[in-house]
Amino acid sequence: MKTIGKEKQESNSVTSQKTLLNEFVEEHDDLIVYDTYIDDGFTGTDFNRPSFQRLLEDMRNGNINCVIVKDLSRLGRNYIEVGNYIEQVFPLFNIRFIAINDFVDSVKNPASTNTILVPFKNLINDEYCRDTSIKIRTSLNGKKKKGEFIGAFPAYGYIKSPKDKHKLIIDESVASIIQKIFDWNVNEGLGKIAICHRLNDLGILNPTGHKKLELEQNYENFGVQDNTYTWTPSTIRNILNNEVYIGNTVQGKRRTKSYKVHKVESVPKEGWVRVENTHEPIIDKETFEKAQELSRRDTKISQKTKELSVWAGFLKCSDCKRAMNKKSSTNKSGSKYEYYICSTYRKKSNNLCTKHSIKVENLEKAVLKAINLHIDLLIDTEEIVKQINDSSFQNTKNENIQNMIIAKQNEISKISNFKRTLYEDWKSEDITRAEYLEYKQKYENDIERLRQNIEMLEKEKQKYESQSISSNKWIEKFKEQKGITELSRDIMMELIDCIYVKENGDITIKFKFEDEFKRCLEYIENNKDVLDEKVVNL
User: Fold this and answer.
1) Measured between alpha carbons, how far is 416 from 32 in angstroms, rounded to an integer?
2) Would 3-143 and 147-296 be classified into the same CATH topology?
């Protein structure tokens, strides 16, 4: 039966069992019903199920002296535990045990509990449970690999499709909330606490509240201790890190140890089942990656503004490679200023590193200057690459390599035909066996040599193709910021990977896309002859 509202209906199986048990009791005048213990929806391998524990408590308190079940499997499906209760626990508390369909009665037929059939049936019940568990796991793993959603409740922002419960569709009522959370984090630089405050101030229900009160789902979050349904930093963190919002399904993060041991354990990341593009995204991939980069950085939030500093996570000491800490001070004129110093020097020992102090004002000026110089360099580099790509010489070089490859391939075909006729020449006695073997070996050597030549030409061709740079979209990211006069966290995230501060106050900036830039420079270096030819032609 399905769950309706908050009330869980009994399954047909439980109802039929209750009827059988009540009829049995009515037929025996020596039996009086004290209570009925029902664990509908719990696996028989779990002896910690609530009603079974209540049964044990009533046994200890002397409230009952007889336990009746439909059959042995209703007591449990772990043959060791079932055997322990029948042979030791129940006798210890003077409990009569009756399994109706298995004709077991520890009082009227004591031998029935000691027969080999009892442990044998328990073993069969255990094996049935194990086999069922394997089949279920196999089926679920297959669905996971297909990208089908198998959870009970989708992530906040999604609901199950009415047409297919294994497919997610956007919950339009809260999709804009997800988008705002990412926007506030990535574009406004708000930290998780600040986002929580903003959502709570707006009176927006957290995911648990939305599912229970607005979607009317029978959802429980055991991490929530009250019914205020307020947002927490951990909830924001989970949303910002969840790939579901870019259209990916990631499952299998947790699992039960076995069908007998119901302890839930975390699965290493490499064991997760990840399938891309399984449903419509709410967040674009670029925004999501920016959020991940923010999360990876060691960032601290201003206690006053609750916003991330422009420099948070970017500044490192050039010597110890540890983060720089922000400090404030007052100069002789009484004016306050902010500066950064090495965290090792400040927190651990001035013997382990030096100050590496730099004023925020000087830092900003240096970074702005470096960014603009780097942009100018990239623009010049892009122009040179364009000249090389437009060169007819460059195109001719690639064409010549391809023509050489074709010529070698044709030569291999020709020699292969000669090789095929050798056998016929030998059999027709046009050549001797020794000549046949000699020519055969020669042709094979020639073919191998030509294949090696082709392989070398292919590598050379690939080199030119890999070096050939037709698009420099990453340069566009820098060109968009040409002439900037003010830094923002978004610009820093877009252009800079890290800033190293030296002891003398100088800085070294590691820009984004360094590998791509090096590739451009190598491409230019490898094609100097093309540029020289263009100069001569001029």
Assistant:
1) 95
2) no
Helix (H, G, I), strand (E, B) or coil at 117: helix
- β-pair type (168-170, 315-317): unpaired
- Cβ neighbors of 413 (< 8 A, separation 6 or more) are none
Q: What is the distance of C-alpha 302 from the center of its chain?
A: 30
Task: Locate the domains of the chain by residue range.
Answer: 3-143, 147-296
Mark the ranges of the chain whose per-residue pLDDT is less than 70.
Answer: 1-13, 40-46, 77-80, 114-137, 139-140, 218-228, 255-264, 297-308, 391-398, 463-471, 529-538
What is the spatial distance between Cα 389 and Cα 404, in angstroms, rounded to a whole number? Answer: 21
Residue 257 burial by CB count (10 A; 0-12/13-18/19+): exposed, middle or buried?
Answer: exposed
Other C-beta atoms lying within 10 Å of the C-beta of residue 202: 10
What type of residue sits at position 100? I
Phi then psi for 342, rounded to 5 degrees? -60, 130
Helix axis angle, 233-240 relative to 285-296, nearest 10°? 130
Q: What sign does the CA torsion over 223, 226, 231, 233 have?
A: negative
User: What predicted TM-score, i.e. pTM, was given to this entire model?
Assistant: 0.47
Ranges of beta strands (E only) in 321-473 are 324-330, 336-342, 358-359
> Can you give the pLDDT at residue 469?
53
Going by the DSSP 8-state scheme, the letter that residue 157 receives in this structure is T
Place of tokens 């195109």: 395
Q: What is the signed CA dihedral for 56, 57, 61, 65, rounded to 10 degrees? A: -30
Q: Please state, in angstroms and rounded to a whole number, the distance separating the CA atoms of residues 392 and 534.
A: 10
Sign (positive/negative) of CA torsion 391, 396, 399, 400? negative
Tell me how far apart the alpha carbons of residues 366 and 170 are, in angstroms, rounded to a whole number. 46
Q: Which of 538, 532, 511 is nearest to 384 (CA)?
A: 532
CATH code for the part of the protein at 147-296: 3.90.1750.20
User: Position 383: which residue type?
Assistant: E
Specify whether the CB–CB gap between 372 and 484 falls below 8 A: yes
In angstroms, the Cα distances linking 197 to 187, 294, 310, 431 are 17, 19, 21, 94
pLDDT in tens, 162-189: 998 888 999 999 999 999 999 988 887 7
**Contact by Cβ (8 Å): 279, 247:** yes
Q: How many CA atoms lie within 13 A of 155 on its CB side?
A: 23
Amino acid present at 512: K
In CATH, what class is 3-143? Answer: alpha beta
Distances (CA, A) of 229 to 74, 200, 225: 39, 9, 9
Closest CA to 309 of 193, 486, 189, 195: 189
Cβ 249 vs Cβ 272: under 8 Å: no
Predicted confidence (pLDDT) per residue in 230-285, tens digit? 898 889 999 999 989 999 888 877 766 544 444 667 778 787 888 888 899 999 99
pLDDT at 120: 52
